[in-house]
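Support reply, case 0932

Customer input (verbatim):
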Amino acid sequence: MWPDMELAVLKGVRPRLAGVRVTDEVPAKVETLLPVVVVRIAGGADDHISDTVTVDTEAFGADRASMWQLAERTRAAVHALAATMAGGVVIDSVDTETRPVEVPYGNPAVRRAVATYTLTTRARTDA
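Our regenerated output:
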């Protein structure tokens, strides 16, 4: 059985992003809750031993500078999960698939940077 990697990443990055709302969906009225980071599973594959998970992050800030700062803090937080246990899950490796890039959000009060990471873990043995 494969672990819930979205939950593991959420639990792993939250303590590394003090003062930031870290969630798995964009909250309503996100512009009133900044800074916000959204973590979502975007795909992946397994070889019956290792699970390779693609994770997207969205860093929301009020302006360009805060967006980029949060995106880089998020990148560091995700990379810090390599060779650790997060949310009860051993994360073997973390690689950047796509570095943070600005993606328009459609709200002039919000700037968003999106990045994609690949994390590798192993099947759970407690099932």
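We compared this against your earlier run and they match. Two observations from our side: The mean pLDDT is 94. The longest strand covers residues 89-102. Please reopen the case if you see a mismatch on your end.
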